[in-house]
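Homework help board

Subject: predicted structure for assignment chain

Our instructor gave us this sequence and asked us to write out the predicted structure in token form, then describe one feature. I got the tokens but I'm not sure how to describe them. Can anyone check?
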Amino acid sequence: MTLPEVPGTDMAAAEPAVPASALRLTLASPLYRRATLSVFLSAVGFSAAAPQIASFLVDDLGASLTAAGLFYLTNLTAPVAGYLVGRRSDRTGRRLGLFRLCAVLGAAGWLGIACSTHLWMPYVLSAVVGAFGGAATSQLFAAVHDELKAHPHPANDDVVAVVRMALTGGWVLGPVAGSFLAAHTSLRTMLLATAICTLAQIVPIGTLTTPPAGLADHPTTPTPTPTPGPDTRAPGPRAMLPLLAFTGLYVLVYAGEPVKYAYLPLYMTRQLHLTSGLSGAVIGIQPLVEIVLMPLAVLVARRTGAMRLMVAGAAFGVAANLCFALTGSAAGLFAGQILMGGVWGIFAALGIIVAQRLLPTAVATASAVFLSSTALASALGGALGGIGAAAVGLPLVFLVPATLGLAAVAGLALMSRGSTPHPG
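My token output:
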């Protein structure tokens, strides 16, 4: 099978950027600066809950291991919600208003889950309300893209990496904070804190407004020309094919995350009998490695091409899941998490940039499709993880995402043939 070529996704064509320049740009712009703080708060909240939600369902609401894994099927509604929000955003150009609405809905979903008294309640709340909460981050990245397009600079890709590093920084703090809070209070209190963080992401943005998408290129022009302005036409299937192919392969890579967060904490406590502090350190080491590698990923991609580097990243994921499945020790789990840091150091820095370039006429739709695909991956991973846990148990269930990762390596390798690196 020949996958679509990937035009314009190589980082090599960009001019070299000095990291300090990206930091200066980020701090100088109210939007970049506030978006960085917002995504950090959002990530702290979500990453605190992600490793604990299965334990909450099992310990507080009496779910079986299989039912806890199947919770991630509720995320199947998130790509639909993300696409609807993205299309609305591309039509109106009002990114930040939709961001605020999605953040409020996301907070309401987590609050409802924290107060759940019956097993069915978290499933319904996650599917119906929480689906829109995940679209908040995509709207921030669409707003950042609009601002970067209006003010071109050689360090633009590095600005996106800085914002993504804040997202990753939240994932460094969140799992440790969530584990600590759950151990010293309760899982419900931890989920309440997640709701608070999800709502608090609105605070840094405040009342900030941006020009409608497409008009930011001419902020001082009273009457814009007909060319700028948001495109109200939905992109056709042919135009979206490269984006959908890339997103589908990303789903295969990401599908290991829900398996890991559902079963790795249970494996560490029930079979390896690790302390809560050591378990939190195992979870937290991945985003710490990731945040260190993200700037390096941008630089390396300028030489090798983004898609080629992602092939290596997907291969790291295969090796990581093999460590989880076969080593049976804390050292092996740390090694797996360090490899996972390599995976997400690459994909977190480059994924959103590639996705937006694959559909440049509808960046909010591209952002929403790509970022909400993590929810689809969670559903896929949750379903296969639940089946795998029932069939082979822990820790061999991690062979399931290792197999999915192999398929992603092959698919990304095919797509990389359409990406020819250019000298920087």
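Reply (TA_rk): Your tokens look well-formed. For the description, you could write something like this. The first helix runs from residue 19 to 28. That's the kind of observation they're looking for.
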